[in-house]
Design goal:
single chain; alpha+beta; five-stranded antiparallel beta sheet; two-stranded parallel ribbon; 4 helices
């Protein structure tokens, strides 16, 4: 009986080692292509919200402090990345702030927000979303996201009765939670911009 237990244990160990080796090899092969695809997605999002920028430069910042600062203002979002949008002559046009909204109806939504130096929002571009098709996924449709474009307001608010003010966003039918998550995420980006970037990076 003891020999059988030892034999079975050795076989199990061998299988585990082989499987681990296979996984390591697969990870090594796929890691770079996956990261390249993710980077391409991010860069496409930057360009979508700052089409007149010639290049983007990653800005160093304290992510924990940035997230804490917007949470103090009541936003349950994280500031995941900040890119400086540069003109061809090196002039800073504004910033692309990537946020993750934690209050979507089906989970988190990650998107990049383009903000000009004067606080005008160019718009947003979603890079990761898991909302319900036909409902929350409409946050990626032009009919909804265009409401944020070229607006210079203090904060955005969601309405279900028709937008009558510059800062009002008409909610996606049947998906008010997702609509509010997007507005809150943009507001969080604006809050961080005004506190830390407007007038020059601190």
């Amino acid at each position: 009986m003891n020999k059988k237990i030892v034999h079975d244990a050795l076989i199990l160990t061998a299988f585990t080692l082989v499987l681990g080796l296979i996984l390591a090899v697969v990870y090594g092969i796929t890691k770079d292509p996956i990261e390249a695809a993710n980077q391409a997605t991010r860069e496409a999002a930057y360009k979508a919200v700052f089409s007149d920028a010639d290049s983007f430069t990653m800005m160093e910042y304290d992510k924990d402090a940035a997230t804490a600062s917007v949470m103090e203002k009541g936003y349950s979002d994280t500031i995941d990345d900040i890119e400086i949008a540069n003109a061809a002559d090196g002039t800073v046009l504004g910033y692309v702030i990537t946020v993750t909204a934690k209050d979507g109806s089906q989970g988190s939504i990650t998107f990049s927000v383009g903000i000009r130096n004067d606080g005008t929002v160019n718009g947003y571009s979603i890079t990761d979303i898991s909302e319900t098709p036909g409902l929350g996924m409409k946050a990626a449709d032009e009919e909804f996201y265009s409401q944020f474009e070229n607006k210079n307001v203090e904060t955005f608010e969601v309405t279900k009765t028709g937008a009558t003010a510059e800062n009002q966003i008409e909610a996606i039918t049947g998906s008010t939670i997702t609509s509010k998550a997007m507005a809150n995420g943009v507001n969080a980006a604006l809050e961080y911009f005004r506190s830390n970037l407007q007038g020059g990076a601190q």
